[in-house]
Specification:
Elements (H helix, E strand, L loop, with lengths): L1 H5 L8 H9 L11 H10 L1 H12 L2 H5 L22 H12 L8 H12 L1 H8 L3 H4 L6 H13 L1 H24 L3 H14 L4 H11 L4 H10 L7 H11 L3
Length: about 240
């Protein structure tokens, strides 16, 4: 992992972050995984805890400059982390000013943009954002419709990509379990499961990762999981229940 990072010229401001990644022993076995999975492992461990503390406590100027060493600590309330309109509004405003292409936005962001086009003043007031700021970028109805159409029509391709991503994610979890990194595996599985609660493989993986830490909760998760009769998921569920999960 360290060797891979050293091949790239890293900006001085990011050097402390690279050092944190190099010092995390849980990442060494994942150096050949896809970047999203390496990031998931990192976020589930010490690096993630450091980043969480940093984003909640660092002065805004140091967050913008990515300064993680010797940053200024400030007291920040939960309401300071999101806009008055809530988390979805925060995502929307962030995406409309940081993502060039509208199809990259979340579905909720597209909905807020539709509301803005329909009633700019009321939407700005509900979001808690100055209308003048929102008007700095114009998104037409045609652009919104095209983005929504792409999300709906492209769901088959998206589901295929998620299955491939899921296979690689399960492989990453298996390596963590083999290395007896049970807590990290569970945290990682929980992230995957929360991101795609309808995905059978992530639901099963989450329950399986519970076994070494809390067999009773694992069994309860398997019992509450109801896959289609005759499916692979149903077979795996029964094997784990019979096996004493």
């Amino acid at each position: 992992m360290a060797e891979d990072i050293e091949r790239v010229e890293v900006p001085d401001v990011l050097a402390p972050w690279v050092a944190l990644l190099q010092e995390d022993p849980s990442l060494a076995r994942h150096k050949n995984e896809l970047p999203p999975h390496i990031a998931s492992v990192a976020l589930a461990g010490d690096v993630g805890a450091t980043a969480e503390k940093w984003i909640r406590n660092a002065a805004m100027g140091h967050i913008v400059s990515w300064r993680v060493d010797d940053y200024l600590h400030v007291e920040r309330e939960p309401r300071d982390l999101v806009l008055p309109g809530g988390k979805d509004v925060t995502h929307w405003v962030t995406e409309r000013f940081t993502l060039t292409y509208v199809p990259e936005w979340r579905a909720t962001s597209l909905q807020w943009e539709q509301m803005l086009n329909s009633d700019p003043s009321e939407t700005a007031s509900a979001a808690g954002v100055p209308l003048a700021l929102l008007q700095e970028r114009a998104v037409t109805a045609e652009m919104l419709n095209s983005a929504l159409r792409a999300k709906l029509i492209g769901r088959v391709d998206e589901e295929f990509e998620q299955r491939e991503l899921g296979d690689s994610s399960i492989a990453a979890l298996a390596r963590l379990l083999e290395g007896r990194q049970y807590e990290t595996a569970l945290q990682m599985a929980q992230r995957f499961h929360e991101a795609q609660p309808q995905a059978t493989h992530f639901a099963m993986a989450y329950a399986f990762c519970l076994i070494p830490l809390n067999a009773a909760r694992a069994r309860s998760s398997f019992e509450n999981f109801q896959p289609a009769e005759g499916s692979i998921g149903a077979t795996i569920r029964e094997i784990n229940l019979v096996g004493g999960a």
